[in-house]
Design a protein that fits this description.
Length: 261
């Protein structure tokens, strides 16, 4: 599932289309009514909130959540639409089309619906949000910090790669209850999320391992660019990485770098 940085990167790519008129269709048919509602309107805003993308078309927003299998990609506006496309948006003034395939959510939201959605989300590290609300929820919870970080109502945009790598960099074990996390650790988690997610937005991928002297970051393979996520051994101390299910996803920890207690 794309993590928050991927949606913010997508929003940055789409934002230059603001002001352009759209020709909207739903080749698949599952968003036919929504496509008709925005057809011939102008794109007024593009915003990402955590893992959610909101495209503003006047009275309504198109709300997109890619989920596990969804993707959104640029296409030739003259090309024949693929039958599996949920939403196809052609911007003739920019000579570009965008296709949305297999999202978990693609729906129209009224202003009230939009507010209801955003009110449920925790602060987003990439929007300059104040983390106080997230800190209060974490420090008052007996749930494992590894579960809390995946809860979009606590912090918006964190997925499994970010969870593993950020907890490791701050020396926090995923199984520790939220109420045991000290203020300094909470600050470390937030600041590391901001830094890692901002760089991932710019680069289009999550690389947490620092490049060696003389080695360009873009030459690091993504599968080799993490300290513990899907690694057999910790890239800091060499200890074995433990893996187990936590919060419906596989958690990773180096128990030398991240002591349980």
């Amino acid at each position: 599932m794309p993590e928050g940085h991927a949606l913010h990167r997508l929003a940055r790519t789409l934002r230059p289309l603001t002001g352009c008129q759209v020709r909207a269709t739903s080749p698949q048919g599952r968003f036919a009514d929504g496509a008709r509602a925005i057809d011939a309107r102008r794109l007024e805003s593009v915003e990402a909130f955590g893992k959610h993308l909101l495209l503003g078309f006047g009275e309504a927003d198109v709300h997109i959540h890619l989920g596990l299998a969804g993707s959104m990609f640029e296409d030739d506006p003259a090309a024949s639409p693929r039958p599996g496309v949920r939403l196809r948006m052609v911007f003739d003034e920019a000579a570009v089309a965008w296709n949305l395939v297999a999202p978990s959510r693609c729906e129209l939201l009224s202003a009230a619906d939009r507010e209801a959605l955003l009110s449920r989300l925790g602060p987003d590290p990439l929007r300059g949000d104040d983390p106080t609300r997230a800190f209060l929820r974490i420090s008052g919870s007996g749930r494992a910090i590894g579960e809390l970080l995946l809860d979009q109502n606590v912090i918006a945009g964190v997925g499994n790669v970010l969870r593993a790598e950020v907890l490791h960099r701050c020396g926090v074990h995923p199984a520790r209850p939220g109420l045991s996390i000290r203020r300094a650790e909470l600050s470390c988690l937030w600041e590391t999320l901001v830094r890692v997610m901002d760089r991932a937005t710019a680069e289009g991928r999550i690389i947490t391992v620092d490049a060696a002297a003389g080695v360009a970051r873009d030459s690091i393979d993504e599968s080799e660019g993490r300290y513990i996520y899907k690694q057999e051994r910790c890239r800091v101390c060499g200890a074995e990485v433990r893996s187990w299910p936590l919060g419906a996803r596989q958690a990773y920890a180096c128990e030398l770098c991240q002591p349980v207690a």
